[in-house]
Amino acid sequence: MTASSPSVPSVQRRVSEDQVYETSLLERVAQKDRTAFRELHERFAGLVHATVYKVLNNSQDTEEVAQEIFSQVWMKAHLYSRERGKPMTWMAAMARNRAIDRLRSKQRRFRLQDEYELEARSHDSMTRTDASDETYTNETATIVRGAVMELSTEQREAIELAFFSGMTQNEIASRLGQPLGTVKARIRRGMLKLRGKVAPRL
């Protein structure tokens, strides 16, 4: 061992002295000593940033979480006790836990955002489909009504009673005072004409 190298006992003594001093800083912070808080911040800012950045890998998030941690230290320094370990260990654990909480929060937010976007896209697709179906139905109804109006009066009357009023062919014959065969023939010829007029338009 060279003369310039510190001995193991002296290093241990200095570490022990640092730990005692840092513990006293936390105790003073618990008493809302702002000077002690500034010194504590200077001592542990690098440790806190490094620990948080290792979890988040994002500079902006790291800065925000670091501020939250020191704010938490200011509010909760009275909860620290020597049984929790060294002040450095306590601060590092707090930084890591806070960073993990932020990471999980972001992941949940991204997951919710993905679910919302998926639902929104699905709803938009259904809306477009419904609108398309409605447009097609309206166009079809318009074409059919127009074709019905082009039939002869007898054919139109028979078809309207059969398909729009829901009457049976016997009921139509009784209603119109016509033989059943005549009613059947009118409906059959009218349907053939409708098919010829409507099919090309659809």
The CATH class of the largest domain is identified as: Mainly Alpha
Largest sheet: none
Q: What is the total number of structural domains?
A: 2
Name the CATH superfamily classification of the largest domain.
RNA polymerase sigma factor, region 2, helix turn helix motif
User: What value does the Rg take, in angstroms?
Assistant: 42 Å
Secondary-structure-based class equals: mainly alpha
Helix percent band: over 70%
CATH architecture descriptor text of the largest domain = Orthogonal Bundle
User: Got a strand count?
Assistant: 0
What's the overall geometry?
rod-shaped
Strand portion = under 5%
The overall average pLDDT, rounded, is: 77
Residue stretches low in confidence (pLDDT < 50, at least 5 long) are none
| CATH fold annotation of the largest domain | Rna Polymerase Sigma Factor, Chain: A
SSE order? HHHHHHH
Q: Ends: how far apart?
A: 99 Å
Number of helices: 7
